[in-house]
Request: fold
Amino acid sequence: MLVLLGMVTAVLAAMQTSAEALLTIYFFTSMFLSGCSNTCITSIQIVSPARMRGTVVATYMLLISVAGLGIGPPITASPSANFVDGRIGPALALVSIAIGAPTLGTQIWSRRGYRLRIAALTDQNGET
Reply:
């Protein structure tokens, strides 16, 4: 749900012409996507073996940073230069949809496996 809300508000923010509206909507985009990121880190720690949690989370953060800083700018510049006449707002909206849709699909697809893993860990530890 947070990914969907983040994707919708990112598209809305990118299409604004006023700076005040852009910053207001982007505030909500940041809140939704930060919540999603925190959920991912927490989930990774729950399903990872205890001795590997730090390494797994560090690897996750490294990959997210490399993807965001290394791949993000060229992916945003390409539609800006080729499809939307050099305007950055519509390019950001296209990138938000192009990245958000597969992310949402992956999140929905992985929920069942995550729930099964949590149930198995709960049964293994004797918790209710």
